[in-house]
């Protein structure tokens, strides 16, 4: 940051006001080869009932967080239908028609047939992989490696889900074959619930949606997908493939304002299961809109204010490296990001110095640049939100530790990470999820301060403990074991591997995500039983495999 800029920042802090120092926006020139590679995904259609219908209503222009340097404006890369309440209800009615009270083509297929269809879908999706990866770079500014990884990991998730289902279609319930229990012979298979409404966030628009959608499809459900306003173009690219592979109405798209479309869908009462990844307030509003919430099954992965705890004996190199990785991968726009670091006061100065040095070495730039770590922010209002959080902390005594290195600078949508030292519980950054490249550091003297913060926190997702001493870690493990779903030792918070349960408590989750848990979330056990002594019933049961689709072998 230039000397004059530092003087202005210091003056603004002293006055109790702070705004991101603004520089010329990060972008491309219209005559460049990179500009020529920008996508143009025109979503001027509705995908409802298995048909791509021309959409005659208004379209929302999709603007990239990458700017046109000649105009200083965001580059338009596509469009999505601004659907009405009537359009939204049409979509859920199409899903309900495909479900047909559980008698539709898809729910009545055998599990083997559904698996084969989803396997074919994966093959077809690979044909649009490169387009999806390019869209992820331009629409949500995910760097090239992470954009490719999102697609590939999603396909790997599908493969792992199918493998788990083939290995054990009861998903650990047992009773895959006829089993005698207290004079009754039973067999268990899992069946669909009905119509799913799926909503996923912008940060992993393909992966998060498919982590719910594919298990739901495999189990026989039909779906309405609310495309995110940011990140929706990746789904537009899949519409033709979905329409070609799946029976009509099994998947239907809704786009436009959630306030316009989601309430009417829920109010129909046609939604049987809600798959939601996003904010707790949004989930609450949808659940309340359902006329019979008692029959609505909810799977929700929500917010996180994950804590990194650095104890006095921690290996600082490891702690700093993992806190930077955990706090700033994809700009910190992950529910699993470390969003507050509490470090013991005896090592805090050195920790912050190393933290600032490592963050200052991160490359800030555009998604396709080699080695880039920090990219533009897709949400147009996000810089102002971060700015307000920083200003609040500075006004209450925190320090912008990397001001001299450009922390908090804004180039259009490109926000240089800001490190806030001396964050305390009376500051918004201590409690609120920033979901962006701001790294708050709080100092503690006694472990009870950390335990008190954890006790009152709304977060129930994860925490990371950095220490080399099991005895020092033990009290925190015991505290966290009833608060969060995952405790990480000397490593950042994270979701992978996908076979491991990804759970949460408090306001962070309702349900568990993993390959097998997602299949359970979107299905219900169905038991077939007969009295062991009833020879006629036993004879019927013995032949059912040959005639039913439900019990047909895989």
TrEMBL record:
Its EC number is 1.2.1.24. The keyword Lyase does not apply. It comes from the Eukaryota. Residues 76-523 form the Aldehyde dehydrogenase domain. Keywords: Oxidoreductase, Signal. SUPFAM superfamilies: ALDH-like (SSF53720). One of its GO terms (molecular function) is succinate-semialdehyde dehydrogenase (NAD+) activity. Residues 1-16 form the signal peptide. It is an enzyme of class 1 (oxidoreductase). InterPro entries: Ald_DH/histidinol_DH, Ald_DH_C, Ald_DH_CS_CYS, Ald_DH_N, Aldehyde_DH_dom, Aldehyde_DH_Superfamily. This is Succinate-semialdehyde dehydrogenase, mitochondrial. It comes from Chrysochromulina tobinii.
């Amino acid at each position: 940051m230039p000397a004059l800029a530092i003087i202005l920042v210091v003056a603004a802090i002293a006055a109790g006001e702070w705004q991101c120092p603004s520089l010329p926006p990060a972008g491309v020139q219209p005559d460049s080869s990179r500009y020529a590679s920008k996508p143009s995904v025109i979503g001027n259609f509705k995908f409802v009932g298995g048909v791509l219908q021309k959409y005659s209503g208004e379209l929302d222009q999709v603007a990239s967080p990458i700017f046109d340097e000649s105009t200083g404006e965001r580059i338009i890369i596509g469009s999505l239908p601004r659907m009405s309440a009537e359009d939204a209800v049409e979509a859920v009615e199409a899903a309900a028609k495909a479900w047909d009270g559980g008698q539709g083509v898809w729910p009545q297929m055998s599990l083997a047939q559904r698996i084969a269809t989803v396997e074919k879908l994966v093959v077809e999706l690979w044909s649009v992989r490169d387009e999806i990866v390019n869209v992820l770079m331009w629409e949500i500014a995910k760097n090239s490696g992470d954009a490719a990884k999102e697609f590939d990991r999603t396909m790997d998730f599908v493969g792992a889900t199918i493998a788990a289902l083939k290995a054990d279609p009861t998903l650990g319930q047992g009773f895959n074959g006829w089993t005698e229990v207290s004079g009754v012979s039973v067999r268990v298979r899992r069946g669909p619930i009905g119509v799913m409404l799926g909503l996923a966030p912008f940060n992993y628009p393909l992966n998060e949606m498919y982590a719910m959608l594919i298990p739901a499809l495999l189990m026989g459900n039909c779906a309405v997908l609310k495309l995110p306003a940011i990140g929706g173009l990746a789904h537009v690219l899949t519409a033709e493939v979905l329409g070609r592979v799946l029976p009509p109405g099994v998947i239907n798209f809704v786009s436009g304002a959630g306030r316009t479309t989601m309430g009417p869908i829920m109010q129909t009462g046609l939604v049987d299961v809600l798959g939601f990844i996003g904010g707790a307030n949004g989930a609450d509003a949808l659940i309340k809109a359902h006329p019979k919430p008692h029959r609505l099954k909810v799977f929700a992965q929500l917010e996180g204010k994950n804590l990194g705890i650095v104890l006095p004996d921690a290996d600082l190199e490891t702690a700093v490296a993992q806190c930077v990785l955990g706090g700033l991968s994809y700009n910190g726009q992950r529910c699993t990001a470390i969003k507050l670091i509490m470090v013991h006061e005896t090592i805090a100065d050195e920790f912050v110095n190393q933290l600032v040095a490592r963050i200052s070495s991160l490359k800030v730039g555009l998604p396709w640049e080699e080695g880039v770590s920090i990219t533009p922010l897709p949400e147009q209002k996000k810089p102002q939100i971060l700015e307000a959080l920083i200003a609040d902390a500075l006004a209450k005594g925190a320090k912008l530790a990397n001001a001299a290195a450009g922390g908090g600078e804004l180039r259009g949508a490109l926000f240089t990470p800001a490190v806030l030292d001396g964050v305390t519980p009376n500051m918004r950054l201590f409690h609120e999820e920033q979901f962006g490249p701001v790294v708050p550091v709080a100092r503690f003297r006694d472990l009870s301060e950390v335990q008190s913060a954890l006790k009152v926190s709304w977060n129930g997702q994860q925490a990371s403990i950095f220490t080399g001493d099991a005895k020092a870690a033990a009290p925190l493990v015991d505290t966290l074991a009833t608060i969060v779903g995952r405790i990480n030792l000397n490593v950042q918070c994270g979701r992978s591997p996908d076979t491991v349960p990804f759970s949460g408590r408090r306001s962070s989750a309702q349900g568990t995500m993993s390959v097998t848990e997602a299949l359970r979330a979107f299905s219900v056990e169905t038991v077939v039983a007969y009295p062991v002594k009833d020879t006629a019933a036993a004879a019927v049961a013995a032949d059912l495999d040959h005639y039913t689709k439900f019990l047909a072998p895989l």
